[in-house]
Amino acid sequence: MQLLIMGPPGAGKGTQAKLLVDKFHLVHLSTGDILRAEVKAGSELGRQAQGFMTAGALVPDHLMNEMVGEHLQASREQGFLLDGYPRTVPQAQAIDAYMQEHALALDGVLNIRVSDERLVGRILGRVSCPACKAVFNLESNPPRVENICDSCGAVGLEGRSDDDADTLKTRLAAYREKTEPVLGYYRDRHLVHHVEGDRAISEVHQDLIAQIERLGLS
Ligand code: AMP
To answer: How far does residue 205's CA lie from ligand 1's centre (Å)?
Structure first.
């Protein structure tokens, strides 16, 4: 199974991706998570990416393409869910060429749709667990006990440093300008399947599973 999940920032993409990789035993290739780990580790890539990330801007395509290629190779046996990449048409073209060269092919693109008004509330309330990366939302999906992770019990849920209102505007603008055209790119290849994201997490999850089943992949 070789899938891509898309949606604007705050659509619940990360949450849904986690549920899907658990259900279908896929490797979760989240470029945001991979980059944050690189920044934390103080690697050369992390050093180059950090400024762009803090500003809510996109990391340059050539850095992303190289990074993702390595991860795809390592995940091909198990199957993967790409999350957060490609985010520009040149990235989509690069990964297409890479996949063709390495006998890989996307089975489908799952797109989570959410209205703009809902996105803002969702992003500004987002916190995550520093230990296991579980994501919560103080408005729509709070942890059972304040500041404690439901999944692993770690104390001290963190807001993301790129989640403040100004950065959000930059990220939404980057999404509209650079990432929405990627959907068009895959639509032309008849790969896109839409799911309405303005609903409970479990409902969106069930819809995603139904889409995957329709693709004949499970
Ligand atoms: P995310 O967790 O997916 O929202 O990613 C966090 C940040 O990492 C983004 O705001 C970008 O700065 C950077 N990033 C992640 N994936 C990509 C990508 N495919 N292309 C460019 N920048 C990316």
So the answer is: 23
